[in-house]
Amino acid sequence: MPTSQISTLERTSGWAKFGRYSLLTLIAVIVLLPVYAVVMQAFKTGAGAMDHPRSLLPVDLTTETIRVAWTKGDMGTLMRNSLVMSVLVTIGVLATSLLSAYAFAFLEFPFKRTLFALFLATMLVPAEVTILINKRTIDSFGWKNSMTGLTVPLMATALGTFLIRQVFLQVPSELREAAALDGLGHGRFLYEVAAPLSRPTLGALGLLSFLTTWNQYLWPQTIIDDTEHRTLQIGLSRLSNADINRLNLVTAGTVIAAIPIVILLIVFQRQLVRGLTAGAVKG
Amino acid sequence: MARVQLDGITKTFGSGATAVNAVDNVSLDIDHHAFMVLLGPSGCGKSTLLRIVAGLDDPTAGEVRIGDKLVNDVLPKGRDVAMVFQSYALYPHKTVAANIEFPLKVRGVDKAERRSQALAAATSLGLEKLMDRRPGELSGGQRQRVALARAIVRQPAVFCMDEPLSNLDAKLRTETRAELVDLHRRLDSTFIYVTHDQVEAMTMATSIAVMCDGKILQTGTPEQIYARPATVFVAQFIGTPPMNVLPAGVLEGESVRVGFRPEDARIVADSSDDTLPMDVRLVEQLGHETLVFGDVQGAKVVVRQPASSSAPAISDTVSISVPLGARHRFNADSGERIER
Amino acid sequence: MKRRWRDAPTALMMLAPSLALLGLFVFYPLVRAIWLGQQACDNTGNACHSVGWSQYIDVYRSNEFQNALGNTFTFAAITVPLGIILGVGLAIVADKHLRGIGVFRTIFSSTIASSVAVASLIWFVLLNPQLGALANVFDGIFPVLKRPGLLNDGGTALPAVALSSVWAGLGFTFVIVTAALQSIPRDLYESAFVDGAGSWRRFTNVTLPMLSPTLLFIGVVITARAFQAYGEVDLLTQGGPNAAGRPTETIAYFIYGKTSRISNQLGLQSASAVLLFIILLVLSFIQFRVLERRVHYAN
Q1: Is the pLDDT of residue B141 over 70?
Q2: Which residues pair with B258 in a beta bridge?
Q3: DSSP 3-state of B51
Q4: Among B185, B201, B235, where does a domain finish?
Q5: CB of C278 within 8 Å of any CB in chain A?
Q6: Is the per-residue pLDDT at B255 higher than 50?
Q7: What is the total count of domains within chain B?
Q8: CATH number, domain at B319?
Q9: Pairing relation of β-strands B190-195 and B158-162?
Q10: Running DSSP on this structure, what letter comes out for residue B243?
């Protein structure tokens, strides 16, 4: 906003402005310092990374470490696995949530309230409880070390249903009635009216699912123990066991791992905020 | 109470090619203890002007004086101004009592004193039984009175109100208008009141400033503005129904637009050089009077008739006569009033 | 009666996928875990036999469980208040109409991009005595940074792990509080301003009360995360240092960690997990009841 539009309450001027910018910069530096330090070391040789404090300066840079980290850490496979897993789970969550949210929002059936309460109740059960048993269940299906075993249990979440139902409930009932008069069955109404109307929430939910799945740590670690299906987060942890003189490989691996998400977040910033604030802020 | 003087106030928003003057070189003198109403359609700059007086916005140019003191660089706190917002701006988490006490708390008044002053303000507005409720539990009218109580508890020199009645239903609005006039009589403050509703202005104000596009078109008492509107705009803004303003050349010369109030015209039996033919389109029988709507040479016209007269029928053509003394004349180009 | 059943077949069809998933992967595990909690099993999780429901009490009373529980509470005690205060602080500092404020806001929310693994590894490197720039640059002031290193010292290990978690959560709390701040009506601030309230008073009388539901939400989320803290521990300390009595073994790590005393003992793990579930339920209940009264909900 141009300064002339800011009220006297909102404007900052003179010394206050200087002070505010200083504070902002200071905080920004503190927040980014860890990232800076680590990124810097990712671009140094093993020896250079340990040569403090020179290690923090943007000198003697090389892309060698990154290349080694990529090949030695088999990052291509790791990324592919994480990507496939995240996409599959996101699709699964959206699909199942759309269907059940539709049922709860637009259909009449007995025990609706009890069932919904049960859905919500599942959100109280912590992962620690479910992972123990799910591992054995997946094993018994023979799905261990497979993408199926990795992704299917992650699709079991009621959060998506809860959020989408909220949006569906705001669809005016006249719309449903008009559609019924036009002869639209439930399937078509969902596909042609309800889903398009809730697109922003769907986008936010999709992004949130993708992010959460991408960041999964305990579950992939439990279910996968071969190298072929390993995901990025677990692969990174194995890098950290590398020898101490090449610990900067870890930093290189971290940089590689973070880039896809950073790009994703910059592109989808608004959906992300929407997804995070759903339920936290009214209106 | 204090005098408020605005001298050459301009407020510009935006810059360069898209700059717009919300307030355009406005000067206004408000006497102490006046009830000044800033009246105009939305976007005319009245709220901006009010905010400048309160100190919420800075003028791009011009001086603001309260009580003869230059206050351009003085924060609202130091101006001894209280403000009632259109949305009331009540603190939802505080009780009514805490809301009303807040300005006193800020000034460091001690607890016992605060409580009694707040109670006094609340009682004067009939709120004494609601002191422990929260705004969420109150009706619109009650919330509005809490906002008023919070403003008067400070006994400010200037009392600013930004369309405080617009969120109330019609009946409540009428009742509250009377209460506001009474409040003004009881308090020592100068009232500055912003509204787009000319009925509020006419019934409550001691002085009205009619604004349009950032400028003041006319200042005066309600009677003055009603009797001698300074421009066509003012003439058509005030009055229910508003004044009829004929196109140029009808009834008088090409450079003159004639205006007349619906109650000043009469439907006469015979036509003559001095009457106008009107095609009747609609007749509204209101009980105490009748409104006849019609077309005069393409212009829409309203005439007020006492209920006792026989009303014409739709599609009739009648003759209306406007006595010379009841005619208002306006320049056909500028819209400004022409005195005889 | 008939109307209620009209949609039942369609509803069943639509609910089936979610019901199947939730039933198989949430409800069934819960029931089974409760049952397994009174069993003892071999290393592969088979050949289980019942040892009685008292196993729950034994586990609860055990030193290791109490240690893990205590560690987790300490972890939460650090991450929750710090997370809220810093998140609010950052949001308020960045809540001004200044040129370039968008850049700062993006920077402040950037830690959302870090997963648990990424954030933990960043701090692993930073705090490492040899590799960490932090350790070597500041070691003059804080000798513990380099020798034996923050993560290897019994007293500082848990706070160090908590620190990495707080840093990682900054972006999340910042984004949420900023959105909440922007939903506070400007009128309230202006009214207080005209009445003479200065910045601090406006903060305590307008900002904080209006933020309270959001702060409650954040508190609940961070607490839940603290009780599920696993990755951080796995990457940074594996529950150690052992010599100091495993001060960073959180309850999640106690259940799943490779170096935990009960690793591969399905019965004990199940019992611990179910106990954790109960504790979380109680905590959530308390948080909502105690705090909801003090939290204001604007209409």
Answers
A1: yes
A2: B329
A3: helix
A4: B235
A5: no
A6: yes
A7: 2
A8: 2.40.50.140
A9: parallel
A10: P
Q: Residue A122 class from Cβ within 10 Å (0-12 exposed, 13-18 middle, 19+ buried)?
A: buried
Instruction: State the best of C187, C189, C194, C199 to mutate against chain B, taking most chain B CBs within 10 Å.
Output: C194
Query: Stretch B291-295: mean pLDDT, rounded?
Result: 91
Burial class (CB in 10 A: 0-12, 13-18, 19+), A44: buried
In angstroms, rounded to a whole number, what is the distance separating the alpha carbons of residues C204 and C86? 16
Provide the pLDDT confidence category of residue A282 given band limits of 50, 70 and 90: very low
Count the neighbouring beta carbons within 10 Å of the beta carbon of residue A129: 25
With bands split at pLDDT 50, 70 and 90, how would you rate the model's confidence at C297?
low
Contact (CB, 8 A) for B262 and B253: no
Mean pLDDT of B237-258: 88
Which residue on chain B is closest to C192 by alpha carbon?
A: B103
Short-list A162, A140, B136, A4, CA closest to C29: A140
Q: Does domain C54-294 have CATH number 1.10.3720.10?
A: yes
Contact C108, C171 (CB under 8 A): yes
Asked if the peptide bond before residue A126 counts as cis, ω within 30 degrees of 0, the response is no
Sign of the alpha-carbon dihedral angle for C187, C193, C199, C204: negative
CB contact under 8 A, C118 and A258: yes
- Kindly report the number of other CB atoms within 10 A of residue B276's CB atom: 20
What's residue C146's pLDDT? 60
What SS3 class is residue A63?
coil
Residue A11 to chain B, least CA–CA distance (Å): 10
CA dihedral C147, C152, C158, C159 (to 10 degrees): 20
Query: What would the mean pLDDT of B27-52 be, rounded to a whole number?
Result: 94
A69-277 has which CATH code?
1.10.3720.10
Output B233-237 pairs: Cβ under 8 A, ≥24 positions apart.
B233/B335, B234/B210, B235/B259, B235/B328, B235/B330, B237/B39, B237/B40, B237/B41, B237/B198, B237/B210
ipTM, interface predicted TM-score of the complex? 0.84
**Statement: residue C181 has pLDDT above 50:** yes
Q: How high does pLDDT run on average in chain B?
A: 91
* Weakest-pLDDT range from B96-100, B135-139, C118-122: C118-122
Percent of chain A with pLDDT over 90: 22
- Dmax over Cα atoms in chain C, in whole Å? 80
Q: A10 to chain B: which residues are within 8 Å by CB? A: none
Q: Which of B235, B257, B283 is the last residue in one of the domains? A: B235
Q: What is the 3-state composition of chain A as percent helix, strand, coil, each rounded to the nearest 5? A: 75, 0, 25
| pTM score, whole prediction | 0.84
Contact B187, B110 (CB under 8 A): no
B190's enclosing H/E stretch is strand B190-195
Rg of chain A on CA atoms, in Å: 24
The count of C-alpha atoms lying within 13 angstroms of the C-alpha of B51, restricted to the half-sphere facing its C-beta, is 25
Nearest CB to C299: which of B76, B103, B136? B136
Q: Do A236 and C117 touch (CB under 8 A)?
A: yes
Instruction: Quote the domain boundaries for residue B323.
Output: 246-331
Neighbours of B22 (CB within 10 A): 24
